[in-house]
């Protein structure tokens, strides 16, 4: 995933540095980007259904959260329950579950390069949704940069049409995953100002895992009959890309600004493509390479100029 799980859309461009780190925050940022880039490799290595991998990734992450007792924050008086807030929380969890379902399944059909690059289209959907839902306006330069990103994604899809219909189907799933994640972020935008972040993560992870559990039951997928390799991958998906990746991004927001984190995760597709070449022998086509460069360039420029965007 190309954006921290708990970063609110209205996050200020600059955050306050609290305390000091024993190592450079940028070294930790690289570790986070590298960890998230590994997720696509783990998924490719597993023979389990994508919905099973997503469910266990969330469940094992929940287990890792439990020692921190995030539920204790329910009595902290920092937020109050309401019907609207509860509905947004449920929607946020459902959209996160759909994101895992669509994106992880996309890697069963298309290449790491196409899937990861198309996933970076999240800002396009967020820009459109924020305009209609929150009346947030984006500068002309911001719109132009995202159009460049869209042109790059079209080139990727065009190349995959010539490759196979299955690859194009995988591309569509990746775009659906990006859209679902964008809806997840927009649904949680207001909640992130009211609910402690770890408690919010616990709730949405549980809801998303329940959605995937129902999907697995409906499709009669076995919950236990998997190899030791698959079980190891389930644990690694929770520990490395989720905890050492996305949650590390959230923690680093206390030391570097949100724009820096957003710009850094643009490197996820680059590292993922390199890892796919070395570990999976996947070599990007010229259309994937050129389209990918355009997409990441457009998204990168958007994040660079985003603080200058006007909000109404």
Question: What distinguishing features does this structure have?
Answer:
transmembrane helix, disordered N terminus, DMT family transporter, mainly alpha, 312 residues
Rg measurement, Å: 19 Å
Work out the strand percent. under 5%
In quaternary terms, these chains amount to: single chain
Unreliable stretches covering 5 or more consecutive residues: 2-18
With helices defined by DSSP (H or I, 4 residues minimum), what is the helix count?
12
Helix content: 55-70%
* Main pleated sheet: none
The helix-strand sequence is: HHHHHHHHHHHH
C-alpha termini separation? 29 Å
Shape: globular
Q: How many beta-strand runs? A: 0
- Count of domains: 1
- Structural class of the secondary elements? mainly alpha
Mean pLDDT: 81
Keywords: Membrane, Transmembrane, Transmembrane helix
InterPro entries: AA-Vitamin_Transporters (IPR050638), EamA_dom (IPR000620), EmrE-like (IPR037185)
Pfam family, one: EamA
Membrane topology: Multi-pass membrane protein
């Amino acid at each position: 995933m190309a954006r921290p799980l708990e970063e609110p859309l209205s996050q200020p461009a600059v955050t306050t540095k609290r305390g000091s780190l024993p190592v450079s925050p940028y070294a930790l940022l690289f570790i986070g980007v590298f960890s998230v880039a590994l997720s696509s490799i783990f998924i490719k290595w597993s023979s389990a259904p994508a919905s099973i991998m997503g469910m266990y990734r969330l469940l094992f992450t929940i287990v890792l959260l439990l020692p921190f007792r995030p539920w204790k924050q329910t009595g902290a008086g920092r937020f109050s329950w309401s019907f609207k807030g509860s509905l947004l929380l449920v929607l946020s969890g459902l959209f996160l579950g759909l994101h895992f379902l669509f994106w992880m399944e996309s890697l069963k059909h298309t290449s790491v390069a196409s899937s990861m690059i198309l996933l970076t289209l999240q800002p396009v959907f967020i820009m459109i949704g924020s305009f209609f839902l929150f009346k947030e306006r984006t500068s002309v330069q911001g719109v132009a940069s995202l159009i460049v990103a869209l042109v790059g994604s079209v080139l990727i899809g065009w190349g995959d049409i010539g490759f196979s219909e299955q690859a194009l189907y995988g591309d569509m799933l990746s775009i659906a995953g990006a859209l679902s994640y964008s809806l997840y972020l927009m649904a949680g935008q207001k909640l992130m100002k009211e609910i402690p972040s770890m408690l919010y993560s616990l709730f949405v992870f549980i809801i998303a895992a329940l959605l995937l559990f129902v999907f697995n039951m409906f499709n009669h997928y076995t919950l236990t009959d998997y190899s030791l390799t698959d079980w190891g991958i389930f644990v690694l998906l929770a520990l490395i890309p989720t905890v050492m990746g996305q949650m590390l991004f959230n923690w680093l927001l206390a030391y570097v600004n949100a724009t820096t984190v957003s710009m850094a995760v643009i490197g996820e597709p680059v590292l993922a493509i390199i890892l796919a070449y070395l570990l999976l022998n996947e070599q990007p086509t010229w259309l994937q390479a050129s389209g990918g460069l355009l997409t990441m360039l457009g998204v990168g420029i958007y994040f660079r100029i985003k603080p200058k965007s006007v909000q109404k």
